[in-house]
Amino acid sequence: MAFGWWQLTSANYIEHYGLLREKMSDGRYERQQPHHSWNSNHIMSNLILFHLQRHSDHHAHPTRSYQSLR
Known about the structure:
It contains 3 helices and no strands. By secondary structure, the chain is an all-alpha fold. It has one domain (about 10-70).
């Protein structure tokens, strides 16, 4: 159970590392946009992270299937 939690927490950290959104005057944060996420299409990260770094396409197209992410 602890290993599963660690994997999920690590993946979430990697997917969203360094992403910032502006805080609006009403206290809410601006809407999530594709430029708020990042991709890294390198052979080693693809192998080690199972294409996890193709996360920005998921934010831009949330209904796209995993196999179709770019």
